[in-house]
Amino acid sequence: MNKSxxxxxxxxxxxxxxxxxxxxxxxxxxVAIPPLIIATLVSLILVWFFEKKIxxxxxxxxxxxxxxxxxxxxxxxxxxxxxxxxxxxIMFALALFFGKFFTKEPILKKIIGKSIxxxxxxxxxxxxxxxxxxxxxxxxxxxxxRTQSEEFWVNFKVWGMLxxxxxxxxxxxxxxxxxxxxxx
Length: 184
What we know:
With 184 residues, the chain is mainly alpha-helical. The protein has nine helices and no strands. The chain starts with a helix and ends in a 5-residue tail after the last helix. The protein has helices spanning 3-23, 29-51, 56-75, 79-103, 107-112, 120-147, 150-159, 161-170, 173-179. It is globular. It has two domains: 1-65; 78-184, no CATH class.
């Protein structure tokens, strides 16, 4: 299977299934979460089957979806699924902050350093920006779920956070170009 098609299906398939069940069952989280958990686990199995490994971010996300989705269903309380993005984003921010103490270089460099060649200062700045970005997303998620309707939060989770992440990523191009090491 084509790697980019597999990635698209495993990244967005569970989300599409969640939306289908959420909107076809009177916007009911209790009905939409079990198919989300199952689709997430199936997508992780598919990734393992085709690639013989599961990247850390989808694995962590899958574990947290299963855990917080399960808590939401068990306690019949949506707060658990609402706080999942907050916890994921805080975990990513903390990994970026504390990672350099364990690897002696920014974690972001360890993750994507083979794709982008930057100076050490460039990696430090990029790592800090992403750390603060993840903290900002965590705070934004907290604000949205605490002040808006469930339906607004569900839509924002997909149609808000994804574009914000894409725009933030695009704004990093200037930094990357400034600190890029020419491979000549």
